[in-house]
Amino acid sequence: MSAIYIGVMTGTSMDGLDLVAASFDPLKIHATLTLKFEEDLRDQLMALSLPDDNEIDRMAVAHVALGKMIGNGVNQLIEDNQLDRSQIRAIGSHGQTIRHRPESGFSLQIGDAHIITELTNLPVVYDFRSRDLAANGQGAPLVPAFHQVLFQHHSIHRVILNLGGIANVTMLPAGQPEQIFGFDTGPANILMDAWCDRYTGQPYDENGNWAAYGHPIRSLLDRLQAHDYFSKEPPKSTGREDFNIDWLHDQLADWRNDLDYDELEDQPENVQATLMKLTTRAIKKAIYRSKEAMPTGEIYVCGGGAFNGTLLEQLRWRLRKHNWSVQTTEALGLAPIWVEATAFAWLAMRFCEGQAGNLPAVTGANGLRVLGSMTHI
Ligand SMILES: Nc1ncnc2c1ncn2[C@@H]1O[C@H](COP(=O)(O)OP(=O)(O)O)[C@@H](O)[C@H]1O
Ligand SMILES: [Mg+2]
């Protein structure tokens, strides 16, 4: 029987921990689990994503707490599903990103791998991004290599669109593995979640229903789109340090001082609709950027944003002229919420086999690199 790898992911949304037990060639999902963060830990992690006082101490405390949560989560996954521990080769633990600054050469994930090993008696592959950064890459996105193996088609152009806190695209030109390309397009849910929480008390906008009720505000959209990130050329990657609620509030304050400001437009649901348009516009631009090589094809959405029917409908509408179809990865046999965690199980497998996990064309690294470090039992 092929070895099982357990992938553990917690993305920029900080909505929780996703765990997947998978084996590869062919892909088989043996078990899945999502664990919500305790409010206290989530607050700690959220606070660590922006500079503040006494960071070293607070970071170390969260590092330990998250390591325990992951270790206990892996044990729960194994026990609930009666997995055979001897068949599990390694855990691939991404950890929580609390600072992503590729321009300074680092990206910091926490969640102590040594604690995970102590709790599970399994080796843990962790710190997947540092080696790519050391080779002058962005250290992100890392999922495209897995998307390629699983989803590239010999005659149909495909795009895998991951809608987590941040949106990233993987462009898979038909039958051309050497031409694969991808990058973070900008925010997906990060700003919409924060805005929704503030005005409705809900952690996210279910199905995008609230955004659908509003109308995008042109002058605000123009202002948000002026963020430097959107005009940067790939390779590029982003996170909470570029797009966060404080930045949004600053932009809103400036917009309200603008000559274009129209008080009647200033409704929270219109701001939400504007944030959704900010997301879909950047995605459209990313897809049309490759229009010579990929004039049309299929888009498969993964990540929690795959459940935002309004966003998917708007994307379909924006890309209708070139007949891009928009579905979720469910249509390809992998449920959208498990794609990222499965990718980290796959990256753990690559590490154990001594194989590269990055794609230099995507991250900008000097070459292919084996990603991660490993604890031993
Ligand atoms: N039913 C839904 N309707 C709209 N948005 C959803 C729904 N379910 C999940 N989401 C969005 O997906 C996000 C989580 O996606 P996820 O892929 O886990 O992101 P990350 O990788 O950043 O953790 C949530 O924060 C929320 O914005
Ligand atoms: Mg998540």
TrEMBL record:
<dbReference type="InterPro" id="IPR005338">
    <property type="entry name" value="Anhydro_N_Ac-Mur_kinase"/>
</dbReference>
<comment type="similarity">
    <text>Belongs to the anhydro-N-acetylmuramic acid kinase family.</text>
</comment>
<dbReference type="Pfam" id="PF03702">
    <property type="entry name" value="AnmK"/>
</dbReference>
<keyword id="KW-0547">Nucleotide-binding</keyword>
<dbReference type="GO" id="GO:0016301">
    <property type="term" value="F:kinase activity"/>
</dbReference>
<dbReference type="GO" id="GO:0006040">
    <property type="term" value="P:amino sugar metabolic process"/>
</dbReference>
<dbReference type="GO" id="GO:0009254">
    <property type="term" value="P:peptidoglycan turnover"/>
</dbReference>
<comment type="pathway">
    <text>Cell wall biogenesis; peptidoglycan recycling.</text>
</comment>
<dbReference type="GO" id="GO:0016773">
    <property type="term" value="F:phosphotransferase activity, alcohol group as acceptor"/>
</dbReference>
<dbReference type="GO" id="GO:0005524">
    <property type="term" value="F:ATP binding"/>
</dbReference>
<comment type="pathway">
    <text>Amino-sugar metabolism; 1,6-anhydro-N-acetylmuramate degradation.</text>
</comment>
<dbReference type="InterPro" id="IPR043129">
    <property type="entry name" value="ATPase_NBD"/>
</dbReference>
<keyword id="KW-0418">Kinase</keyword>
<keyword id="KW-0808">Transferase</keyword>
<dbReference type="GO" id="GO:0097175">
    <property type="term" value="P:1,6-anhydro-N-acetyl-beta-muramic acid catabolic process"/>
</dbReference>
<protein>
    <recommendedName>
        <fullName>Anhydro-N-acetylmuramic acid kinase</fullName>
        <ecNumber>2.7.1.170</ecNumber>
    </recommendedName>
</protein>
<feature type="binding site">
    <location>
        <begin position="11"/>
        <end position="18"/>
    </location>
    <ligand>
        <name>ATP</name>
    </ligand>
</feature>
<keyword id="KW-0067">ATP-binding</keyword>
<comment type="function">
    <text>Catalyzes the specific phosphorylation of 1,6-anhydro-N-acetylmuramic acid (anhMurNAc) with the simultaneous cleavage of the 1,6-anhydro ring, generating MurNAc-6-P. Is required for the utilization of anhMurNAc either imported from the medium or derived from its own cell wall murein, and thus plays a role in cell wall recycling.</text>
</comment>
<keyword id="KW-0119">Carbohydrate metabolism</keyword>
